[in-house]
Design brief:
Chains A, B: This is LPPG:FO 2-phospho-L-lactate transferase. Chains A, B: It holds the Pfam family CofD. Chains A, B: Its EC number is 2.7.8.28. The structure is a homodimer of 326-residue chains. Chain A is built from 13 helices and 14 strands. Chain A is α/β, with parallel strands linked by helices and 326 residues long. Chain A has a domain of 225 residues: Rossmann fold (3-Layer(aba) Sandwich), CATH 3.40.50.10680. In chain A, the strands form four sheets. Chain A has a seven-stranded parallel β-sheet, sandwiched between helices. In chain A, strands 7-6-8 form a three-stranded antiparallel β-sheet. In chain A, strands 3-4 form a two-stranded antiparallel sheet. The first copy, chain A, starts with 10 loop residues before the first strand and ends with a helix. The relative contact order of chain A is 0.15. At the A-B interface, α3 and α4 of A face α3 and α4 of B.
């Protein structure tokens, strides 16, 4: 990437969720901001939940904290330097999930959001308020304002995705994932407009099934991607046939998707073929998959995908933008 | 009081609210517990409020913390050793009242209560759960499960009682107090039964207008007191023509009640005369008022009323029980 390629008004849209998505978004934000462009992040809300009377939006908050520079980088979610004064009280009262920590600083956001929702604000409006606290260098939008859940269906019953993911560490074999409410959901205000007006659209290296999957399942959203004038590039969340962050392999297996860079590319599909991708970034470890990705009608780009520090993460964002001509 | 007077099954009911009420309740609980009796506290809920999406019951919580021995004795409310990790976050988010501190430990109770209410529990049921955490030596009942507010009507408008009391320190002259919803309220489950079955009924030295007033305004509750077989004794919250704890004088003035021990006795009235009192404890400083209290048809007892430590508080509870024959 050279500065010759810069367009002051470059409008970039990122679809993202989870830890990987929020990490990638930080690097992308740094790059887009330096270019004087505009970044809009469309964030998964499929694993939102009500817990202890509070509305939690885990992916939105991870994204918010990451872009604000206050995320706990060690654990990948929550606020840096958080404490558990309230959490210990909630445990003493027998409220909530004892395996799902709500840190004190984090609780501030949950209480603020819930307060605003109770006042009648939409989730979008609440998220708009949350992001006024810091200069994020990006606009953060939820995929939808509709309440959508992610349930994990097991042989023995069903549970909320967060229980399966956090409590059981994805060790219980799922039959399938379901997103109750998603068929009746609509994209949040601004989402389709951002996609239609974008110069580049990126799909973060997030879990394809439970982070990106719900976004694409919001009626009208995938159609918006297919109709967009911008090209769409994704970053593989699989490096060397293994998920960068644990447990995505289980999700892929349940969805019938091979846990490979090419497998996920095929799952998303070529835009020319009714899918969503024009280009796909695969890791150097997976260079051999480039041909089979190309055979899908998706331009493959071999790049270093490990986001092990801010420099590498930003370089990955640059590579993604370059793959779609920016 | 001698042990000769003890009845193992003595059932005592206390009407109380606020700081003074929760302090008195602690001493009474110690005495009743040692006698092997049963104490039921009927607590004011008139200054409950929704704040930041959470249901606060300030008087219930003060009572709970006091009986549990975890109250901040210096400030008279809240949890001892509390902190403000979350409160600082809420301020940063612009949520809540910056002059109304919600401590971290305290927030645990607010979140627990709100969570249970959202699950469909009644306030009574939520309070029943809250008090299982500690051995209170008493049963704590709200006066009603109906949501009742206390508004302060001013020349310039109206505000919630907590805003007037805590933010403005009762310095804005009120026109009157109103309890929206109170006419349609009903006593909480167990309240009328406790009163009807009591051997002694005590009215704590709480604010007569905004703590005891709402309790007595719950339809059926004052009638229950008048019909009770037990005698009813009150403890004057006025010592030496001044409220023990600030600002009750403003409330009394608005209600047209002289800020004297006799004035408050007259406000409550003699049970024989359609009021609620059989006996009234007045301070040594107010001994001269004994005759005018007696003239109301209320037995007056001059006692040391300052609850300056646990020994004096318990002695006051003993004196109150003795005044109604226990």
């Amino acid at each position: 990437m050279t500065t010759d390629d810069l367009t002051v008004s470059t409008r970039v849209v990122l679809l993202a969720g989870g830890v990987g998505g929020s990490t990638f978004a930080g690097g992308l934000r740094d790059e887009v901001r330096e270019r004087g462009g505009e970044l809009t992040v469309v964030c998964n809300t499929g694993d939102d939940l009500w817990l202890s009377g509070l509305r939690l939006q885990p992916d939105v908050d991870s994204m918010l904290y990451s872009l604000a520079g206050v995320k706990d980088l060690r654990q990948g979610w929550g606020r840096a330097g958080d404490s558990r004064r309230v959490a210990d009280e909630l445990a003493a009262w027998g409220v909530g999930w004892d395996w799902f920590l709500l840190g004190d600083l984090d609780l501030g956001a949950h209480i603020a959001r819930t307060s605003w929702l109770r006042e009648g604000l939409t989730p979008s409006q609440a998220i708009a308020r949350l992001q006024t606290r810091w200069d994020l260098g990006a606009t953060l939008l939820p995929m939808t304002d509709t309440e959508v859940d992610t349930h994990v269906v097991l042989d023995s019953g069903r549970m909320h995705f967060q229980e399966w993911w956090t409590r059981h560490r994805a060790r219980l074999e799922p039959v399938r994932f379901e997103n109750p409410g998603i068929a009746a959901s609509v994209p949040a205000p601004g989402v389709l407009e951002a996609i239609a007006g974008a110069d580049a659209i990126l799909v973060a290296p997030s879990n394809p099934v439970v982070s990106i999957g719900p976004i694409l399942a919001v009626p009208g959203l995938a159609d918006g991607l297919r109709a967009a004038s911008a090209r769409v590039v994704g970053v593989s969340p699989i490096i060397g046939d293994a998920p960068v962050r644990g447990m995505a392999d289980v999700c892929l297996r349940v969805a019938g998707v091979p846990c490979t860079a090419a497998g996920v590319a095929g799952h998303y599909g070529a835009r020319a073929d009714g899918g969503i991708l024009d280009a796909w970034l695969i890791a150097e470890e997976d260079a051999a998959a480039a041909a089979s990705v190309a055979a899908l009608g998706i331009a493959s780009h071999v790049e270093p995908l490990w986001m092990s520090d801010a420099v590498r993460t930003r370089a990955l964002a640059v590579a993604a933008l370059r793959a779609v001509g920016h």
